[in-house]
Design goal:
The protein is α/β, with parallel strands linked by helices and 188 residues long. The protein contains four helices and eight strands, in the order ββαβββαββαβα.
Length: 188
Protein backbone atom coordinates (compact mmCIF):
# COMPACT_ATOMS: atom_id res chain seq x y z
CA UNK A 1 0.00 0.00 0.00
CA UNK A 2 1.19 3.54 -0.78
CA UNK A 3 1.00 5.69 2.39
CA UNK A 4 1.59 9.43 2.65
CA UNK A 5 2.79 10.40 6.14
CA UNK A 6 2.31 14.03 7.12
CA UNK A 7 3.96 15.76 10.07
CA UNK A 8 4.04 19.40 11.20
CA UNK A 9 7.60 19.99 12.37
CA UNK A 10 10.98 18.52 11.56
CA UNK A 11 11.41 17.93 15.32
CA UNK A 12 8.46 15.48 15.13
CA UNK A 13 9.74 13.48 12.15
CA UNK A 14 11.28 10.16 12.92
CA UNK A 15 12.78 7.43 10.75
CA UNK A 16 9.35 5.93 10.25
CA UNK A 17 8.89 2.58 8.59
CA UNK A 18 5.83 0.43 8.11
CA UNK A 19 7.00 -2.96 6.82
CA UNK A 20 5.45 -4.00 3.52
CA UNK A 21 4.26 -0.52 2.57
CA UNK A 22 5.64 2.24 0.34
CA UNK A 23 5.98 5.45 2.38
CA UNK A 24 6.12 9.08 1.27
CA UNK A 25 6.61 12.04 3.61
CA UNK A 26 5.22 15.57 3.70
CA UNK A 27 6.13 18.30 6.17
CA UNK A 28 2.99 20.40 6.50
CA UNK A 29 4.14 23.15 8.83
CA UNK A 30 2.05 24.33 11.77
CA UNK A 31 -1.67 25.12 11.50
CA UNK A 32 -4.77 23.92 9.69
CA UNK A 33 -4.33 25.98 6.54
CA UNK A 34 -0.72 24.97 6.00
CA UNK A 35 -1.59 21.31 6.70
CA UNK A 36 -4.50 21.39 4.26
CA UNK A 37 -2.46 22.95 1.45
CA UNK A 38 0.58 20.70 1.82
CA UNK A 39 -1.48 17.53 2.28
CA UNK A 40 -3.66 18.33 -0.75
CA UNK A 41 -0.65 19.08 -2.95
CA UNK A 42 1.27 15.94 -1.89
CA UNK A 43 -1.80 13.71 -2.21
CA UNK A 44 -2.52 15.00 -5.74
CA UNK A 45 1.06 14.33 -6.84
CA UNK A 46 1.58 10.99 -5.08
CA UNK A 47 -1.93 9.49 -5.22
CA UNK A 48 -1.58 7.53 -1.95
CA UNK A 49 -3.95 4.80 -0.80
CA UNK A 50 -4.02 6.38 2.65
CA UNK A 51 -2.74 9.45 4.51
CA UNK A 52 -1.42 9.29 8.08
CA UNK A 53 -0.95 12.42 10.16
CA UNK A 54 1.80 11.48 12.63
CA UNK A 55 3.01 13.64 15.49
CA UNK A 56 2.39 15.09 18.90
CA UNK A 57 -0.80 16.16 20.66
CA UNK A 58 -2.14 17.33 23.99
CA UNK A 59 -4.96 15.72 25.96
CA UNK A 60 -7.41 16.06 28.81
CA UNK A 61 -8.20 12.33 29.00
CA UNK A 62 -5.00 10.32 28.40
CA UNK A 63 -1.52 10.09 29.87
CA UNK A 64 1.74 11.44 28.53
CA UNK A 65 3.32 8.69 26.43
CA UNK A 66 0.05 7.20 25.15
CA UNK A 67 -0.40 6.76 21.40
CA UNK A 68 -3.92 7.44 20.16
CA UNK A 69 -5.25 6.51 16.70
CA UNK A 70 -7.86 9.01 15.56
CA UNK A 71 -10.43 8.57 12.80
CA UNK A 72 -12.85 11.34 13.84
CA UNK A 73 -11.83 15.00 13.51
CA UNK A 74 -13.35 18.33 14.48
CA UNK A 75 -12.35 21.94 14.04
CA UNK A 76 -12.88 23.50 17.47
CA UNK A 77 -12.78 26.99 15.96
CA UNK A 78 -15.53 26.25 13.42
CA UNK A 79 -17.62 24.41 16.01
CA UNK A 80 -18.48 27.83 17.46
CA UNK A 81 -20.39 28.74 14.29
CA UNK A 82 -21.79 25.31 13.45
CA UNK A 83 -25.31 26.70 13.88
CA UNK A 84 -24.74 28.51 10.57
CA UNK A 85 -24.36 25.18 8.79
CA UNK A 86 -20.56 25.32 8.65
CA UNK A 87 -19.13 21.78 8.52
CA UNK A 88 -16.76 21.28 11.44
CA UNK A 89 -16.45 17.47 11.72
CA UNK A 90 -15.15 14.64 9.54
CA UNK A 91 -15.36 10.94 10.34
CA UNK A 92 -13.25 8.45 8.38
CA UNK A 93 -14.62 5.30 10.05
CA UNK A 94 -16.30 4.06 6.86
CA UNK A 95 -13.20 4.62 4.71
CA UNK A 96 -10.94 2.95 7.27
CA UNK A 97 -13.28 -0.04 7.75
CA UNK A 98 -11.77 -1.49 4.57
CA UNK A 99 -8.50 -2.07 6.42
CA UNK A 100 -7.65 -4.42 9.25
CA UNK A 101 -5.77 -2.44 11.90
CA UNK A 102 -3.89 -3.99 14.78
CA UNK A 103 -5.18 -1.31 17.21
CA UNK A 104 -8.60 0.24 17.80
CA UNK A 105 -9.38 3.46 15.94
CA UNK A 106 -11.32 5.16 18.70
CA UNK A 107 -9.64 8.54 18.89
CA UNK A 108 -11.50 11.81 18.45
CA UNK A 109 -9.16 14.71 17.59
CA UNK A 110 -9.89 18.41 18.09
CA UNK A 111 -7.89 20.82 15.92
CA UNK A 112 -7.64 24.56 16.48
CA UNK A 113 -5.54 27.57 15.62
CA UNK A 114 -4.02 27.85 19.09
CA UNK A 115 -1.82 25.61 21.22
CA UNK A 116 -4.03 24.49 24.10
CA UNK A 117 -2.53 25.43 27.48
CA UNK A 118 -5.65 26.11 29.55
CA UNK A 119 -8.16 23.33 30.09
CA UNK A 120 -10.93 25.93 30.50
CA UNK A 121 -10.23 27.15 26.95
CA UNK A 122 -10.70 23.57 25.78
CA UNK A 123 -14.44 23.57 26.47
CA UNK A 124 -15.13 23.39 22.73
CA UNK A 125 -14.69 19.75 21.96
CA UNK A 126 -14.34 18.61 25.59
CA UNK A 127 -15.30 15.15 24.38
CA UNK A 128 -12.14 15.02 22.25
CA UNK A 129 -9.38 12.57 23.13
CA UNK A 130 -6.52 14.66 21.78
CA UNK A 131 -5.85 18.23 20.63
CA UNK A 132 -3.56 19.47 17.88
CA UNK A 133 -3.23 22.29 15.35
CA UNK A 134 -3.07 20.43 11.98
CA UNK A 135 -5.09 17.22 11.62
CA UNK A 136 -8.42 18.78 10.66
CA UNK A 137 -6.75 20.61 7.74
CA UNK A 138 -5.27 17.37 6.43
CA UNK A 139 -8.57 15.55 7.06
CA UNK A 140 -10.41 18.17 5.02
CA UNK A 141 -7.99 17.74 2.10
CA UNK A 142 -8.39 13.95 2.26
CA UNK A 143 -12.20 14.14 2.36
CA UNK A 144 -12.09 16.34 -0.73
CA UNK A 145 -9.83 13.85 -2.51
CA UNK A 146 -11.67 10.75 -1.18
CA UNK A 147 -8.55 9.31 0.48
CA UNK A 148 -8.72 7.45 3.81
CA UNK A 149 -7.13 9.48 6.61
CA UNK A 150 -5.90 8.51 10.06
CA UNK A 151 -3.99 10.42 12.75
CA UNK A 152 -1.43 8.63 14.92
CA UNK A 153 -0.69 10.95 17.85
CA UNK A 154 1.76 10.66 20.73
CA UNK A 155 0.54 12.43 23.86
CA UNK A 156 3.21 14.95 24.91
CA UNK A 157 1.25 17.01 27.42
CA UNK A 158 -1.84 17.22 29.58
CA UNK A 159 -3.62 20.50 28.89
CA UNK A 160 -3.48 22.84 31.88
CA UNK A 161 -0.37 21.23 33.35
CA UNK A 162 2.47 23.36 31.91
CA UNK A 163 1.51 22.13 28.44
CA UNK A 164 3.91 24.08 26.24
CA UNK A 165 6.98 23.21 28.33
CA UNK A 166 5.95 19.53 28.52
CA UNK A 167 5.40 19.46 24.74
CA UNK A 168 8.90 20.81 24.07
CA UNK A 169 10.45 18.37 26.55
CA UNK A 170 8.61 15.36 25.07
CA UNK A 171 9.22 15.88 21.33
CA UNK A 172 12.20 13.51 21.26
CA UNK A 173 10.20 10.87 23.17
CA UNK A 174 7.37 11.30 20.68
CA UNK A 175 9.68 10.76 17.72
CA UNK A 176 11.25 7.63 19.24
CA UNK A 177 7.96 6.10 20.42
CA UNK A 178 6.24 6.71 17.08
CA UNK A 179 9.18 5.09 15.23
CA UNK A 180 8.81 1.93 17.35
CA UNK A 181 5.03 1.95 17.07
CA UNK A 182 4.89 2.31 13.30
CA UNK A 183 7.55 -0.38 12.72
CA UNK A 184 5.31 -2.89 14.52
CA UNK A 185 2.05 -1.53 13.16
CA UNK A 186 0.35 -3.78 10.66
CA UNK A 187 -2.20 -2.72 8.10
CA UNK A 188 -3.78 -5.56 6.15
Amino acid sequence: MKILITYALEAERGSWQIPGHELFFCKTGVGKVSAALHTYDAALRLKPDMVLSVGSAGTLHHQVGDIVLCSHFMDRDLEKIAYLGVPFEFDFSAELALYDFKAALKGFLSTGDTFQTDKNESSAGMHADVYDMEAFGSAQACKQLKIPFLAVKYITDVIGQNSLKHWEDKLEDAKTSLEKYLCKWIIE
